[in-house]
Design goal:
Structural class: alpha+beta
Order of helices and strands: EEEHEE
Number of helices: 1
Shape: globular
Strand content: 25-35%
Length: 108
């Protein structure tokens, strides 16, 4: 069973209305960095820096739930080219904020 360690979060479209974030991770058995592309639906233009950080942490909480559910259904990680959309592929169901730097996720 893989263990993912998240290393970086990179916003990809701060000049548009949405909030796209690439969350980078490594699996325990590889040195190659992989990513999951999360597409948020909130308007980034009206957010302060603190609000963007909090929203990104909420997106990450949802990304963890999405990865877990995807693993349980398909027994593999989502393809890197896939965009995972808020409101289509997942919904933010709580205000829980999870910091991504160094976060480890064990898939079972």
């Amino acid at each position: 069973m893989p263990i993912l360690t998240f290393t970086t979060a990179v916003p990809t479209n701060s000049d548009k209305n949405g909030t796209d974030v690439l969350f980078y991770y490594k699996t325990h058995d590889s040195l190659i960095r992989q990513k999951i592309h999360i597409v948020g639906s909130d308007n980034a233009w009206t957010m302060t820096t603190d609000e963007k950080t909090a929203y990104t942490q909420r997106l990450f909480t949802s990304a963890i739930a999405y990865i877990n559910a995807y693993w349980k259904r398909h027994h593999k990680l989502p393809e890197e080219q896939t965009e995972v959309h808020q409101g289509i592929d997942f919904h933010i169901q709580s205000e829980q904020k999870t910091a991504w730097k160094g976060y480890m996720l064990e898939l079972v």
